[in-house]
Amino acid sequence: MILLYRTDPSNPDFTELVKHLDAELAVRDGDDHAFYAQFNTMGFLKYSLVAYEDGIPLGCGALKEISPDTVEIKRVYTTSQSRGKGIATKVMAELEKWAAELSFKKCILETGQNQPEAIGLYHKLGYHRIPNYGQYSDVFTSLCFAKEIG
Predict the structure, then answer these.
(1) Where is the N-acetyltransferase domain (predicted)?
(2) Domain count within the chain
(3) Residues of 16-45 as b/e, b for ≥16 C-beta within 10 angstroms?
(4) By three-state DSSP, how is residue 131 classified?
(5) Assuming Cys at both sites, which of 51, 81, 131, 147 could form a disulfide with 59, CB separation 3.0 to 4.6 Å?
(6) CATH number for the domain harbouring residue 28
(7) What average pLDDT score do residues 113-126 get?
């Protein structure tokens, strides 16, 4: 059974999962990784989530406030050996639920064109493409998505 634990970015399991995420993204993004990494610092995150099975951390995600009604979903990751079990879907659903409880009305997110699994997941969960926002506005390798939650 998957347990979803709401926490903050200082949680050691969250930070360890993010290290694995960053290592995977360094391979996928290649020379572009340093550019993207600047937008994935933990400093602006207040809310994070870790998914556990039998006490083992298998996945994570986080929320970053963008405006009073919009939150950005960040740092979504599932360990390679745990993929295909629906963990990312559960993490996303819990992040959306948490965001709604915090009175946000919309979730936005960015992913890279080299992450087809993530793109497929976001489409499956009802996210739709939007124009690239903020720091991703002029980044042609970024794909931005949104979903109304409230």
Answers:
(1) 5-150
(2) 1
(3) ebbeebbeebeeebeebeeebeebbebeeb
(4) coil
(5) 51
(6) 3.40.630.30
(7) 94
